[in-house]
Design a protein that fits this description.
The chain is 81% helix and 0% strand. The protein is mainly alpha-helical. The chain has one domain. Helix 4 runs parallel beside helix 10. About 3% of the residues have low confidence.
Amino acid sequence: MHFLLSALAIILIDLLLAGDNALVIALAVRALPKHERHLTIVCGAAGAVVLRVALTAVAARLLTVPYLQIAGGLFILWIAIKVLVDVSTPPDKAPAPHRLLQAIWYVMVADITMSTDNILAIAGASKGDFWLILFGLAVSIPFVVLSSNLLANLMDRFPALIYLGAGILGKVGGEMILTDPLVAHAWNPTLAVRYSVEAVLALGLIAYGAGRRLMVAQGRPT
């Protein structure tokens, strides 16, 4: 019964926390041809699970490592900018990663970058039980795969969602950077400062994407 209750808690955690992972992966693979997206997401998510299993063993220390969240936040912001650069062209013709393996690597790094909250939550719910940890991380694969594919397809149909997604990544990237131990210790930003920076990054990315698209539509160089 204890195992079943813990497993149920982990499933709920995956449902609640998989959304941000699905969003960043959907944006990362949007420029791929449709027939390659599913394979890329599955392989990347599976590879990320392997990394998560190793990282969960030291989950409690992850948030104390200086520069880790800064690097993760910058990577998330880079993905958002990259997507906005490509958004003016149809998905199948956008400058996708040169090789499928490179695209899978993008997904793995994006997923593991966004998974600190999942890792810590699953580590707490499992109370150190290796099989529960493995179960929780494996269960996250179908959630992320289905959500990422759905979001990528919706972005094809409704391009405006891409700007919204980029704005959300701006908010997430800013939050990761400002909660890094180094930044928190040196600056100790208040909640008002954090929310302001996150809002500026989110709105700035949306404005950048909209401005770039307008310039492309007018035939002006970007």
